[in-house]
Amino acid sequence: MKKPTFADLMQQIEAEAQEEGPEAVAQLERMRHRYYLGGQLAVLRKRRGITQVELAAQSGVEQADISKIERGVSNPTEDTLARLGKVLGARLAFIDDRERVAI
To answer: pTM surpassing 0.70?
Structure first.
């Protein structure tokens, strides 16, 4: 038996969300956005050569909160995104086109 890929697992999760209804689909979308934003934040931070500790000190956002955002387990406020973006020289924002999250 073939081992399932990440894409296979995502298809299964999407199918289950569809079966559960609109709220489950919306929740899955929110989760997807958080994970994407967090991943992009981590990439940008590393490109700038800044550690989470340094970003925390410069932005006033706790290092633990930055870690949670980067792992997609936290839902950052607009203020938090603005403070992180200012330090990183970028505008961090959700784009409501259901296709991407901009950084």
So the answer is: yes
